[in-house]
Write a structure and sequence with these properties.
The complex is a heterodimer. By secondary structure, chain A is an all-alpha fold. Chain A is built from 13 helices and 2 strands. In chain B, the strands form 2 sheets. In chain B, strands 1, 2, 3, 4, 7, 8, 9, 10, 11 and 12 form a 10-stranded mixed beta sheet that branches. In chain B, strands 5-6 form a two-stranded antiparallel ribbon. In chain B, a hairpin with a 2-residue loop joins strand 5 and strand 6. The chains are: A mainly alpha, B alpha/beta.
């Protein structure tokens, strides 16, 4: 009787898990596995049937200049967007967490870039960055700068895209920080104040530690975004000029849909996947200890 | 008991959904068995210009389905499937073929030929046995057939075609003391006029270097060289000849030396806007922008042949019809009948007026409707007349990679890299890429 009860319980659990399991296997595990397998094959326009070539795709990628460039760009892109947009999100959240006239309106203003699709944002910013009549250039000219073709220049293209992404993402993290800030018990802050802690000390020793789960969450989201959103490249630069703004995911897209080189696309995908998994693991295991879940 | 029955119904529902997915995917109109009385063709088409193009296409399909054209006694009908832009169409066609659900016909870039040659059929047999078809092929502007033919065979039929042309702002010409009816015809004149037209907040000329920038560069290449930048069999490219280097140097000098073009890489989609906004007096762009400029420019503008150097020349561009291999002979014949129907002179004329593409058939320009249109809008005629000087657009095996190599070189040079070294490197990369086909 007892045994059959356990079996029944297990069965019930499995049945409940089944729907998500099926989708997980179909849309996550199976594609990962088949990508992994494809990365060992030469599969492009010149090969009618894929040929097994072992690790050749990986050695080709190590020597591929565009891949290296996209990889380095992606590192800079991550460094450029993650800490900045998360910090800015926190700053904005603190700013709009107080009571002042126009509080709701400024929250809306900070949040609205999040609501607009990336493609639309990219089109708008494409024209912001246009030399001469673009908004950015008009401002630069007003304060006496030379006219700049920001997206058309190898030195500034990536930076310009980083700026846009920060603008787009900061509001997103603001919302999470805002929710977190409002969940901090008032008595903790009061106690700190009674102990004579300054505003800065209150923030450093009470508020910030309590925000750690949100910070972890935000950095993970921001980091994955740095690898997985490339809509802006399709619209704004196509990875150019001369790959100055190319990123790994866009390079995967180019390999798959422009070059139809499925083997190499799979190889870059596997590399990106490994990077993502290790970043997530590092973030999880190192910051987990410092987090106070209330 | 009740709980178990709920669980069971959840499971049943799950499988129901899954089964639903798979059955709807396999039910495809094109799979209708050949015994039935009708042949329903699936036609993938891209839209690459503005306007309500899908409605026009749907109307064509409706008209065709009412026309009652028959093959082997079976009525032919067509279902158009909008498939995004050219890139997305390529992706969809490739995916469909991989999954054994090839469409019957598609409109794709004329230069995609070598990329899909294994999946399509040559059309010579249809043309040879059909006097109407022969007439049709002879009536296309010969310039438009160049990209459709290789190995002595015809692989596609022109549908929506374009070339590069020069747009210029007549008001600015007048203001600068230039004759608004005499646009520049040589590279030297471009520089000379450009210098007169450049002033604060206004540039002489703009050449875009993204998206289809390689195409604009090919125009310069052709003007500076008697031969094209690739071999006819699509297996070789010639990117670092002296002529190629001069052409690239000319482009780079427009900014560096002559200061008549903005610095840096100019975006494909912002250049026409610059022109419409009056920020540049001239631009090189596709004829596909004609309708856009016409509707949005609030000044008098002209279009003209591209200024030549050693010769006057332009590459062609745009999309052709392809018929796929993995269907029955009967369906292929039906697809060909549809192509014949939709490229009839009056329809080609109508398509041109709706989209801004050049009408593909010479006799289209004899039709009343197009005559009237061209009479009221003479700019539309320039593109047609320039076809005489049109050459094959670059079309090679590994089209995507080679295009990227050219773009990277072009953009590197614009950003200050040495022209010689850049093109030598590009040629080496291109040769490595095409090695598999030698």
């Amino acid at each position: 009787m007892r045994r059959s009860n356990i079996v029944k319980e297990n069965l019930t659990a499995w049945v409940f898990l089944l729907p998500s399991l099926i989708f997980l296997v179909m849309f996550t595990l199976y594609p990962i596995l088949s990508t992994f397998i494809s990365s060992f094959y030469k599969s492009d326009l010149s090969t009618i049937e894929p040929i097994f070539i072992g690790f050749d795709n990986y050695t080709i990628m190590m020597k591929d200049e565009v891949f290296r460039k996209a990889f380095i760009n992606n590192v800079w892109f991550t460094i450029g967007t993650v800490p900045t947009s998360v910090c800015l999100g926190l700053l904005l959240a603190i700013l709009v967490n107080r009571t002042f006239v126009g509080k709701a309106l400024s929250r809306v203003f900070f949040f609205y870039p999040v609501v607009i699709p990336m493609v639309a944002v990219s089109f708008i910013w494409l024209f912001f960055y246009t030399p001469d009549y673009g908004m950015i250039n008009s401002i630069l000219k007003l304060i006496g700068f030379e006219e700049l073709n920001l997206l058309g220049n190898s030195d500034t293209a990536l930076l310009s895209i980083i700026m846009m992404v920060i603008w787009k993402e900061a509001g997103f993290f603001m919302i999470f920080y805002l929710a977190a800030l409002q969940n901090i018990p008032k008595d903790l802050i009061e106690a700190a104040r009674m102990d004579g802690a300054s505003k800065w000390r209150q923030f450093r020793s009470v508020i910030f530690p309590l925000l750690m789960p949100t910070t972890l969450f935000s950095t993970i989201i921001a980091t994955t975004n740095a690898f997985k959103t490339v809509d802006q490249l399709v619209v704004m630069t196509q990875g150019g000029p001369n790959n100055a703004s190319n990123l790994l995911l866009y390079y995967i897209y180019e390999n798959t849909f422009r070059f139809m080189d499925y083997g190499r696309a799979a190889t870059v995908t596997v590399i990106v996947l490994m990077i993502m998994v290790s970043i997530a693991a590092i973030q999880f295991f190192t910051t987990d200890k410092k987090i106070h879940y209330s | 008991m009740k709980r178990i029955s709920i669980l069971l119904s959840v499971i049943v529902l799950m499988f129901g959904i899954l089964a639903g997915c798979s059955s709807s995917a396999s039910e495809r109109s094109g799979d209708a068995d050949s015994n039935s009385e009708t042949i329903d063709l699936t036609w993938y088409y891209p839209v690459n210009v503005g306007g309500a193009i899908t409605e026009v296409i749907d109307q064509y399909a409706k008209d065709f389905n009412h026309a009652g054209i028959k093959v082997n006694g079976k009525k032919v009908s067509v279902t158009p499937v909008y498939s995004g832009n050219y890139d997305e169409t390529m992706t969809k066609v490739q995916t469909a073929i991989k999954n054994g659900k090839s469409p019957d016909l598609s409109v794709q870039l004329s230069v995609d030929l070598f990329q899909i040659k294994n999946s399509i059929i040559p059309l010579d047999d249809f043309i040879k046995n059909d006097s109407e078809a022969q007439e049709m092929v002879d009536d296309f502007f010969p310039g438009f057939m160049k990209n459709a033919q290789t190995d002595g065979k015809t692989w596609s039929i022109p549908f929506q075609r374009s070339t590069v042309i020069l747009y210029y702002n007549k008001d600015m010409f007048k203001e600068a003391g230039l004759d608004p009816e005499a646009p520049p015809t040589t590279w030297e004149e471009v520089i000379e006029y450009g210098k007169k037209l450049t002033k604060k907040g206004q540039w002489g000329i703009e050449l875009p270097a993204t998206v289809s920038g390689y195409w604009i560069y090919q125009a310069l290449y052709l003007q500076n060289s008697e031969s094209n930048m690739m071999s006819d069999d699509g297996k070789e490219v010639y990117l670092n000849t002296d002529e190629a280097k001069e052409a690239l140097q000319y482009w780079v000098d427009l900014n560096n030396k002559h200061k008549i073009m903005p610095e840096g890489v100019l975006d494909w989609s912002t250049v026409p806007t610059d022109f419409i906004e009056g920020k540049t007096a001239m631009m090189l762009s596709t004829t596909g922008n004609l309708t856009n400029v016409k509707n949005n420019a609030n000044f008098d503008f002209g279009v003209a042949f591209l200024p030549g150097n050693k010769r006057v020349a332009t590459p062609t561009g745009g999309g052709n019809f392809y018929i796929f291999k993995d269907t029955s002979e009967e369906r292929q014949q039906a697809a060909f009948e549809f192509i014949k129907w939709i490229t009839e002179p009056t329809r080609a004329a109508e398509w041109s007026m709706n989209t801004g593409y050049i009408a593909t058939r010479q006799s289209s320009y004899e039709t009343e409707a197009l005559k009237e249109y061209v009479g009221a809008f003479p700019q539309a005629k320039v593109a047609m007349e320039q076809i005489e000087f049109a050459n094959k657009e670059i079309s090679v095996y590994e089209q995507g990679k080679i295009q990227k190599i050219i773009h990277d070189a072009l953009q590197a040079a614009i950003n200050g890299a040495d022209v010689n070294e850049t093109l030598d490197k590009a040629q080496a990369e291109a040769e490595a890429t095409l090695k598999a086909y030698q």
